[in-house]
Amino acid sequence: MTDPVRIAITGAAGQICYSMLFRIASGGMFGPKQPVALQLLEITPAMGVLEAVKMELDDCAFPLLSEVICTDDPKTALTNIDAALFVGAKPRGPGMERSDLLKDNGKIFSSLGKIMNEVANPDVKVCVVGNPANTNAYILKANAPNINPRNITALTRLDHNRAMSQLAGKVDCSVTDIEKMIIWGNHSTTQVPDISHCLVSGKAAPSLVDESWAQEDFIPTVAKRGAAVIAARGSSSAASAGNAVVDHMASWVNGTAEGDWTSMSVPSDGSYGIQEGLIYSYPVVCKNGDYEIVQGLEVSDFIAGKMKESEKELLEEAEAVKEMT
Ligand code: NAD
Ligand code: LMR
Predict the structure, then answer these.
(1) Cβ(248) to ligand 2 under 6 A?
(2) Are residues 150 and 73 part of one domain?
């Protein structure tokens, strides 16, 4: 019997996890042959709800689910793990920007970063979901110097998937016909969804749509989709966010399709002139459990200007949390 992959998941009694945990336990993240063990963390007042989530996981009799630990002790949750999904954090409500959450949520990431630094395997693969995701990952990384910094990533796969769906709708194709979508920058309204390198059934996407659609419709629709879901639903996206976390980790571990890439927020190594160390979304190719930022792509002046605006926002967020880093 293969050893289970051990995954710490914070905020496990919340909305995103209520859909995501069942996908992970049924093999959606690590594959149909890979057992998984879940180490679920919550704050003490939410332990009753977390027990109910465990009851439902038990009641699914998932063949791949080897163990579920429920705890309000971060050390217990973060010990002996292969992956950590940091979901636990306040969501925004109508009229708020994600960065308005920084003061409250940043503290969670400085404290969990220190504990992860003490108890976790240095090669643990981390995905930060709690908002503002990029700067929370930046705080986590600063507080966990023993952990391989390359492995501290944040979620922009939801934006990538949203972009795929918007383009597919526009040109009336299946998302499976689209390759080489890019989300550059921050998971915020300054993000840069970019179809410049996209292929639709092998044809260059920019030749299939008006430039004005790509710049004035597509980019703001994708960048503001989170707020549109909040306005329609009264609370932030949950099932699509959980699905994106499954996709993010599955691509990282199992690889991206031959000839294609995905978007992940990763520590910048200075690629495309972005300040080293910021957690910035790039196109990445994943292979053998690792990722590489795609190099050498031509970037138009329009996209380059927007990439700089998103970098500037991340620098301002980094400045705002400098006591935590
Ligand atoms: P939720 O309020 O339903 O659940 C959050 C859970 O986290 C709660 O159960 C809460 O008790 C728990 N929690 C709070 N502090 C904690 C701590 N210190 N340790 C462990 N658990 C803790 O919220 P949700 O809808 O599941 O969203 C969670 C976060 O994900 C929010 O910040 C939201 O904005 C963000 N989000 C990000 C993306 C993305 O694409 N990056 C997408 C959707 C939502
Ligand atoms: C999203 O993009 O749906 C999430 O980041 C939630 C939000 O606040 O928009």
Answers:
(1) no
(2) yes
pLDDT in tens, 169-212: 999 999 999 999 999 999 999 999 999 999 999 999 999 999 99
Domain edge (last residue) among 154, 175, 210: 154
Does residue 229's CB lie within 6 angstroms of at least one atom of ligand 2?
Answer: yes
CA 86–ligand 1 middle distance (angstroms): 8
In the annotation, is 160 catalytic? Answer: no
Residue 131 in contact with ligand 2 by CB distance below 6 A: yes
- Ligand 2, atom 7, lies closest to the CA of 226
By the 10 Å C-beta count (0-12 exposed, 13-18 middle, 19+ buried), 49 is classed as middle
**Residue 206 vs residues 26, 116, 162, 203, 301: alpha-carbon distances, Å:** 38, 44, 18, 9, 15
* Residue 306, in any domain of the structure: yes
132: preceding bond cis by omega (within 30 degrees): yes
Catalytic pick among 160, 187, 197, 248:
187
- For the entire predicted model, the pTM comes to 0.98
